[in-house]
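Standup, Tuesday
Yesterday: got the pipeline producing structure tokens again.
Today: sanity-check two examples.
Blockers: none.

Example 1:
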Amino acid sequence: MPGNDVKVIIGELNGELLELCEYDLQPDDIGVSRTKAGTVPGGSFTTISGKKIFDVLFTAPFIDDSYSISLVASDQRIWHYESKSNTGFRINSQSNAPLSGEISWQAIANGEST
């Protein structure tokens, strides 16, 4: 991931650099999870502009908004996500009809992982 370079000076003696280390840190290296997931009960959705919605807020944000979202629900709807940011996203049911089941979501950081 570009821009994650960190340079660490290990020590200095009489103004002379003893060792310089460079690291290209990835999200896993700095304690940022690449995967987040959860379940939302149907009763937790609120109605905005005639549609049931729920705002998912991550307890620990992603580094950026470069992640993929998967939604799986027991209620048959055309589910959408919107307002995606590094701190969360909005689930939109595209309907105001009551929800009886739950919706499961998963967010996975884009890119290769080893």
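Example 2:
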Amino acid sequence: MVDWTHSEWDLENAVVENRTVEEVCQLPKPEDVIFPEKRSYVGHQRMCNKMRGRVTVVKSDPMMDRLIDVFKATLPNHYSEECT
């Protein structure tokens, strides 16, 4: 990305595409992020605090199923059907 109003050099043989800030800077929607590491609950809390998030606590079977689907999609080589 280049801010052409402050650039002090010229480009040759380049394609210029003008985009709005909204097109370039799309923040992700909040969601569960999986860190495939063994940690204690306190360790998870510390990490979440540093990342400005929170530990997900499963409160229902549908929520557990959704998290399992996210886990399967995120780490397909680390999931075993034996775990269900």
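Quick observation on example 2: The mean pLDDT is 76. Residues 30-83 form one domain.
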